[in-house]
Amino acid sequence: MADTQKTVHLIIERQDSPTSKPYTEEFEIPYRPALNVVAALMEIQKNPVTKDGKKTTPVVWECNCLEKVCGACMMVINGRARQACAALIDKLPQPIRIAPARTFPVIRDLLIDRSVMFESLKRIQGWINVDGSWENREAPIQNPYTAATAYEISHCMTCGCCLEACPNVGPQSDFIGPAPTVQAYLFNLHPFGKFDKEKRLNALMEKGGITSCGNSQNCVEVCPKHIKLTTYLAQLNRDVNKQALRNIFDK
């Protein structure tokens, strides 16, 4: 049952189209325990009326799993990139300010286009080439010393929190970002993926690759899956340098 004595005050940055100017609207909804930001946005969607009583359009955002698995509901909440489904109202100071992650193109309101991350995954060949099939007895075994690392990195949701927090991602730089870069390290650890390790490392030597990382370490602070991004970026930088030397002596 809602507590009629308490309300939740939200200030939401909105944008009607990709080319229109952003503006803010304030909303006030009834408080109830265990409310998260997604649930608060749903309340506004049911009754899109601003704090001063003006009828408006429902706020547009994206969500899917609501379990901090898909990464779709990433937005900037009180100045920090995070998952709206895991952002509990009880733990947020009010007024709660919500904005889209502007490292990415804004489609409308809080809905963003993360295509750039998937294009970056294509660039570093973020997949395993497997032609044909093999019997189980012939399948390669994952190195037990790297299995834990691979498992940790595989938790990446491609949510974009690390790109939003990174000062080297955006119009001021050509860096493809922590998440796509570290995925190269993940696939280089794979028993089949290591056969394309050289291609991935060479791709990271190109413009926007590993050398564009400024080691600000913002990414590891905001990662919702607590992936040790800076650790793997450092190890990947070592691998890229080794590959650069091989390229020189193999000529």
UniProtKB/TrEMBL annotation:
MF (Gene Ontology): 2 iron, 2 sulfur cluster binding; 3 iron, 4 sulfur cluster binding; 4 iron, 4 sulfur cluster binding; electron transfer activity; metal ion binding; succinate dehydrogenase (quinone) activity
Top enzyme class: oxidoreductase
Example of a GO biological process term: tricarboxylic acid cycle
Domain 4Fe-4S ferredoxin-type per the UniProt entry, residue ranges: 147-176
Documented EC number(s): 1.3.5.1
Segments crossing the lipid bilayer: none
This protein's UniProt keywords: 2Fe-2S, 3Fe-4S, 4Fe-4S, Iron, Iron-sulfur, Metal-binding, Oxidoreductase, Tricarboxylic acid cycle
Cofactor(s), names only, from the UniProt record: [4Fe-4S] cluster; [2Fe-2S] cluster; [3Fe-4S] cluster
PROSITE patterns: 4FE4S_FER_1, 4FE4S_FER_2
Keyword Lipoprotein: no
InterPro entries reported in the protein's UniProt record: 2Fe-2S_ferredoxin-like_sf, 4Fe4S_Fe-S-bd, 4Fe4S_Fe_S_CS, Beta-grasp_dom_sf, Helical_ferredxn, SDH/FRD_Iron-Sulfur, Succ_DH/fum_Rdtase_Fe-S, Succ_DH/fum_Rdtase_N
Family under the similarity heading: Belongs to the succinate dehydrogenase/fumarate reductase iron-sulfur protein family.
NCBIfam families on file: dhsB, PRK08640.1
Name of the protein in its database record: succinate dehydrogenase
Gene coding for it: frdB
